[in-house]
Design goal:
single chain; six-stranded parallel beta sheet; binds cobalamin; alpha/beta; binds iron/sulfur cluster; 14 strands; Rossmann fold
Length: 532
């Protein structure tokens, strides 16, 4: 029996465009979900994993399989349905699973033969048995899995073309941020795999670099931290010799022993969600966890870097409390915290989240021609009505932000700083490579913006004079790192006054340029891409 497992591409996700930006090869990861599904599949199935991110294959030249399994984040859904339609028209049954199909069950059911919702470990064998009997059901409901039952992924599949392997050690998150799908999908309870299972699976990963995909590797409570220490100790003892990166909350920096063990176990960098430079922003998205008395982000980041751990700072733009000037505010915060990389995402209502429910009830979801419009749900495209920012303003703000943070002089400065702080040339080089990847992706993002109809989200601009709120926001905004507010040299509060005129002019020209450069949605360019 032949099984194809497909990870659909979305050309609008610049991260996966390796041919256009060779630095991205360091940032493209294997589709772990499919390797996990492969690990649950009996060995007598002949499995081919197709990762379209490495190039779309010509399906017509491949032998027809007995079953196709497709995974999809929301941003991949449109392409997923197209792949499904191709195989179904040739009589091949198609099963879809993953976050999007779970949250949009009816939509998915209309386009595939069967949908697996939630975590698949408890139902996948039933799906395969039903296929063999020719009696596939329409829906299989997965449930939260006992993590000791999670089988190792098939890391032997998909060997070439990746710099990173990947592994999962925990599921679930207790924090439930309004924009995030994780709690809705994996639950509030933080579940972790037995340490020895994780160490064994690490050994089976052929790549030297590994992405730990957990949403929060270290957790939020004392017992979570104790478990992480135990894991890192076991990894050190096993002498894995792997370098790895992970996602974590800022409390990771509070424990020197934890940082020391993580670094010794191979931790190269962590992705930290700062989310917003303002208290109002954090309250709005329910990430009060980041507002802790005495918390000093700059000192926290520095502590991690001293252990040789690089920090990616992630922020969200387009919150209801964000106004004109937010791009500069985020860049200032990131520069002040001295993070190694900055990742700015647009506030995006993803199906199944609290944010989706709120924006839908308020009639604010603009990109709503589904399933085609799902391809814009990359978190890099505006898709909704933002309270104080039109779509052109969002693009303008993110551009301002990135141009500031990824200016060449800053990238070089950061590399030198990384070298001095970590005393590891390899870490400094990695830092430079990722900085270049981000900066190059900016240009790709601009190409993507060409496909956007800005008029869809620009109603606000005709009624609001641009930039008029910058000063009030920056000066009165209550930026959360105390060391940062109104004191740090080179921050907005110090500079904006003198710059107000030029900044307003800059915004004006950038926006005007934006109008000139972005043709409307439905233009020939966008239409042809969607049909590929
Ligand atoms: C690793 C990761 C990435 C990697 C992806 C690597 C890769 N090639 O897969 C990178 C960094 C590239 C990435 C990018 C993005 N990501 Co991401 N990512 C994750 C993360 C942290 C882990 C995913 C993972 O590997 N989990 C481990 C596997 C084992 O679990 P799983 O995927 O859930 O699979 C299980 C089930 O879902 C099911 N299943 C899944 N697929 C299938 C298929 C079949 C046939 C069956 C039967 C079952 C099944 O079975 C599996 C076992 O139980 C998740 C958060 C999370 N906890 O899921 C976010 C997450 C999936 N990402 C998210 C987002 C938004 C994005 C981006 C759009 C935004 C961005 N800029 O980061 C891009 C889009 C990329 C794209 N190609 O379109 C959102 C998706 C929400 C949504 N509704 O789509 C999530 C949930 C995070 C969040 N905070 O909400 N991401
Ligand atoms: S954004 Fe991070 S901390 Fe917030 S709910 Fe999602 S996984 Fe948890």
């Amino acid at each position: 029996m032949r099984l194809y497992l497909v990870n659909p591409s979305n050309p609008l996700v610049s991260l996966t465009r390796i041919k256009d930006n060779h630095w991205n090869q360091y940032r493209v990861w294997k589709p772990l979900s499919l390797l996990v599904i492969a690990g649950l599949t009996p060995l007598d199935w002949d499995i081919t994993v197709v990762d379209e991110n490495l190039g779309k294959p010509s399906y017509s030249t491949m032998p027809l399989p007995d079953l196709v399994g497709i995974t999809a984040f929301t941003s991949q859904a449109d392409r997923a349905y197209r792949v499904a339609a191709w195989f179904r028209s040739r009589g091949v049954p198609v099963v879809i699973g993953g976050i999007h199909a779970t949250m949009r069950l009816e939509e998915a059911m209309e386009r595939v033969d069967a949908v697996v919702t939630g975590e698949a470990e408890n139902v996948w064998s039933e799906v395969l048995e039903d296929v063999l009997r020719g009696d596939l059901k329409r829906v299989y409901h997965g449930s939260f899995v006992d993590m000791s039952k999670v089988r190792p992924a098939r890391h032997d599949l998909l060997r070439n073309g990746y710099r990173f392997g990947s592994i999962q050690t925990t599921r679930g998150c207790p924090l439930n941020c309004s924009f995030c799908s994780v709690t809705a999908f994996n639950g509030r309870r933080y579940r972790h795999r037995p340490v020895e299972h994780v160490v064994e699976e690490f050994k089976a990963i052929p790549e030297n670099n590994v992405l730990v995909v957990d949403d929060n590797l270290i957790g939020t409570r004392k017992d979570h931290i104790a478990r992480s220490k135990g894991l890192f100790q076991a990894m050190i003892k096993a002498d894995l010799r792997k370098r790895w990166i992970a996602q974590a909350t800022i409390n990771m920096a509070d424990d020197e022993e934890l940082l020391g063990l993580a670094a010794k176990a191979g931790c190269l960098g962590v992705f930290i969600g700062f989310e917003s430079p303002t208290v109002e922003g954090l309250v709005e998205i329910h990430k009060k966890f980041n507002i802790q008395e005495g918390r000093n982000f700059r000192a926290s980041v520095r502590r991690m870097q001293r252990h040789g751990i690089m920090v990616v700072g992630a922020f969200i733009m387009g919150l209801d409390s964000d106004e004109r000037g937010i791009g500069r505010q985020i860049a200032d915060a990131a520069n002040h915290y001295e993070v190694d990389f900055l990742n700015v995402l647009f506030m995006t209502p993803l199906p199944g989240t609290e944010l989706w429910a709120k924006m839908e009830s308020e009639g604010r979801i603009v990109a709503d021609a589904f399933p085609e419009d799902w391809k814009y749900y990359t978190l890099g495209h505006p898709v909704a009505t933002y309270k104080h920012l039109s779509w052109s303003a969002m693009l303008d703000e993110v551009t301002t932000c990135y141009r500031n943070f990824y200016a060449y002089r800053r990238m070089l400065g950061r590399t030198v700083r990384t070298l001095l702080r970590t005393r590891k040339p390899i870490t400094a080089l990695a830092s430079l490579a990722v900085n270049f990847s981000y900066s190059r992706n900016l240009r790709l993002d601009f190409q993507n913006y060409n496909a956007l109809d800005l008029a869809r989200g620009d109603a606000l601009d005709s009624i609001r004079p641009r930039g008029h709120r910058i000063l009030s926001r920056v000066e009165g905004g209550g930026i959360i790192d105390r060391g940062y507010r109104n004191t740090a040299p080179g921050t907005s509060s110090g500079k904006t006054k003198g710059r107000r005129g030029t900044e307003l002019l800059g915004i004006f020209f950038a926006t005007a340029q934006g109008f000139a450069e972005f043709p409307p949605l439905g233009s020939k360019r966008q239409g042809t891409e969607a049909k590929k």
